[in-house]
# Entry
Amino acid sequence: MDQSAQYGQMDFNLPHDVVSLPSKGIFYKSKKESLKVGYLTAVDENLLTSPNIFKEGIVYNLMKSKIYEPGFDVNQMLDVDIQAVLIFLRNTSFGSEYEYSLVDPKTKMRFDTSVVVEEINIKKPTNNPDDNGLFEFMLPKSKKNVKLRLLTLGDNREIDKFQEQYPQGMVAPIVTKRLEKQIVSLEGDTNKENISKFVNQMPIMDSKEIRKFIRTCEPQLDLTKHVIAPSGEKVTFDVTFGAEFFRPFF
# Structure
């Protein structure tokens, strides 16, 4: 068992709030629709102000230290639920006003703006999973029936580590690595070696259509915002979770 996944669960009696999960918990074994999440403290600033903030796996560390749910494995979390927790942590620490530096499309000059993020709408998926959280899909080129799953925090961490450790000068096969994790059965066959062999020979049309289909299966937050630039032009951008999101910590 990954002991690090239990970090923070000893603190479930500390001050916290309840965050509703956009996924409604349907992809988790526990089927939990919400999680107890602790507030950021001075101790957390040690992590958030580290020069290696993103290299050290900031998201993973925040999830495992701030989610106060005994027995809940943060490695199984979906991106949309992680985003909801991150927004809660930031809003309860610094308020819901986000500052951004954007480019005016007319003058090409940068300008500073802010947006208030209090309520974020959820984009509901157009495809629903089966009782096991899987999605059935017919590959358009190969005419093979596959069952797919959504990638989790643990999957993405494993893929990132695989890419980092790949020999320099060589292209890491990230696309096929993701497909091998997403495809759990091929024409009813769940053998991982057989799936891997198929993936390596998969027509690019099938690979592309899987990516398109998966996007219709994932619950998502509507992170798109609109502001008016100094020239009067409308600028559309997305709330992201990189340096701009964590700017108040620097």
